Amino acid sequence: MLTPLPADEWDDDTDRALEGTVSPERRNPTDAGNALATLVRHPELAGKFLPFNTYLMEGSSLPARERELAILRVAHRHGCRYEWVHHVAIGKQAGLTDADVEAARTGEASGAFDRAVLAAVDELHDKSRITPGTWHALGEHIDDRQRMDLLFTAGGYGVLATALNTFGVEPEEWAGKPEHYQAGT
């Protein structure tokens, strides 16, 4: 397990690792949050991973609602409480309803497109590929670039969930309650 980098160990390398992806007012041990403050224990890795993660959140062609549905399914499947707690709130800002959040947990959505998004995450988790049928179902609603972004969102957040779980990163008290959280299956 790793703890967030202590304040007296933050240095220019730490700041450079966060530069360009984290606002200046958050590039400190008090405001960075537990995940970032833990990732900067390895500034070179954080400096490479965080731009990719920022792309997934801010630059991806995948619509925000579907991105968050996928991330919540990833968080559930990986049993990552940190991702779940943070992305329930982000997902609701992106338009997810309580029923959508529950669908991300159970894998049982009412709409065909949401079912395809959840199936894609499950297939990637279980078999490291999206099956042709699911790829086709996704293609009825999103283009090739968006499907690629979906795949990389699931993979990127899967890696992040694995790291957060391994390092023992806990959600911050301000992040809210782990609403609907249950360990993944």
UniProtKB/TrEMBL annotation:
Stored Pfam families: CMD
The organism's place on the tree of life at top rank: Bacteria
Region (Disordered): 1-32
Transmembrane segments: none
GO molecular function, one term: peroxiredoxin activity
Domain Carboxymuconolactone decarboxylase-like: residue ranges: 43-123
PANTHER family: 4-CARBOXYMUCONOLACTONE DECARBOXYLASE FAMILY PROTEIN (AFU_ORTHOLOGUE AFUA_6G11590) (PTHR34846), CARBOXYMUCONOLACTONE DECARBOXYLASE-LIKE DOMAIN-CONTAINING PROTEIN (PTHR34846:SF5)
Protein name, UniProt field: Carboxymuconolactone decarboxylase family protein
Classification of source organism: Bacteria, Bacillati, Actinomycetota, Actinomycetes, Mycobacteriales
